[in-house]
Amino acid sequence: MKAAGLAIIVGGMTARIYFTLAESIDLVADLTGQTFDIQTIRRWRRVGRHGERLLAVKIGGQWSTTQAWLCDFFLKASIAGDDEETAAKLEKLRGEVAGRPMDSRAASIAEKFGI
User: Fold this and answer.
1) Which of 28, 35, 53, 104 is at 20 to 30 A from 22, Cα to Cα?
2) pLDDT tens digits for range 10-36
3) φ and ψ at residue 50, rounded to 5 degrees
4) What end-to-end distance do the CA atoms of the chain give, in Å?
5) What are 9's strand-pairing partners?
6) DSSP H or E segment with residue 75
7) Cβ(32)–Cβ(41) under 8 Å?
8) Domain ranges of the chain
9) How far apart are alpha carbons 82 and 88 in whole angstroms?
């Protein structure tokens, strides 16, 4: 994975939490097996897909998202689009991502959006 992301140091270990939308292209490819253009990812944040929008926060003038938010977006959009196979795969991945520790800011944002 090429993405640099925003690194946060937790207990002496570096945990990558936020990825700019441009950096998230690699994450999206890993999650879906497809490569999408940056404009498509930006549209998911602004407009959404199947009625679901990609959660993102603006950090230093750039929109950033997390791997957990990407999983949630694809899971909800897959369910809304009746893609059961993708939804099942993402539900499993979402559980794996949810088991990772989150910093306090990410946790408060996730709580705010009900994730």
Assistant:
1) 104
2) 444 445 688 899 988 888 888 778 889
3) 55, 35
4) 25
5) 14
6) helix 67-80
7) no
8) 6-110
9) 11
